[in-house]
Predict the 3D structure of the following.
Amino acid sequence: MLTAGQVLQLIRQGSCRTRKELIEFTGLSRSTITDRVDRLIEAGYIHESGVGASGGGRPPSVLDVDPANHLLLVAELGANHATVALTDLAARTIAEEHTEMRIERGPDAVLSWVRQTFHRLLEKTGHGAERVRGIGLNLPGSVDHTSGRMIRSFLMPGWDDHPIRESIRETFDVPIVVENDAKAMALGEWWSSWRQCPSLLLVKVSTGIGAGIVIDGRIYRGIEEAAGSLGHVRLRDTDDRVCTCGSRGCVASLASGFALAEDLGLETSRDVVRLVQAGDPTAVARTQEAGRTLGAVLATAVSLLNPGVLVLGGDMAETREHYLTGIRESVYRRSLPYTTRNLRIVTSTLGDRAGVVGTSVMVMEHVLSPAAVDAALRG
Ligand SMILES: [Zn+2]
């Protein structure tokens, strides 16, 4: 017997658009389907809109997900900035706040700002906290997404093993999802631009380097949630530069935004972007070279995964395609033609929205899953 949550799933997937189609598809009785649909409408998950194709007689109304009734809160925490947004269940931003903040300030200060900003966004838009169905955060480090704890990050001293979910739950008792930044961005890009593509690889290059893999619409995490941690692949053991991880010759110490900034006598990866955008020849040359260096590692990833699209996200996506050009050169030169024949190498279409959108999509998928919907309807 299908639950209301499972009926919602059929409507979301587009398998069934009317009560009649639900009855035919599931083989359930009219009264059972009416009961499930009415409960979903009452709880604000779906609404009836428009009219469907009619086989004569009264045209049936079409059932659709109603994204406006439930709200999500999401936060993106970067090395030097933070964004908090209130979104609906279609990942559309309703209100947002952005600030320059160093994540090195530690979990207490940063998460306290996040909680306060969540409340402020709700107040500003006149919504009560009871309409919030779920919360998501993404951070530049490896996280245990099942427990909502930080595992570790070289960019986030003082955060190791921090129980992020518990810390947010002090003020919000709703499902809370914690994810790595590149993984969240990969899901955001896939959801907004590449839903027909069964295999997407995103590489985020800002202060550090990380990657996210989406296969068949799902984030691929690996057994230690370490899938995509390619920033610390060691390319040149003899290099003098010491990486944030303590090793030498990591791709992050050669090709990250931070490495470029150090090279060019600047402070942050944003400074590098500004210099490249201004057309500084040295900055442009170094940026392309960094793209080629990372491209050497990405060629291996492309040969392994054979993705349909490789997306460059993060600050380096804004270097007027110079970083991207370097990646393209290396990946095509170092891969067999048939692994790249149908590969598109592009910059992120969402730009600095990718993390917020991806995190919102992740929470949305969680909140609209059959188990979560059935639990909410019971409770
Ligand atoms: Zn390293």
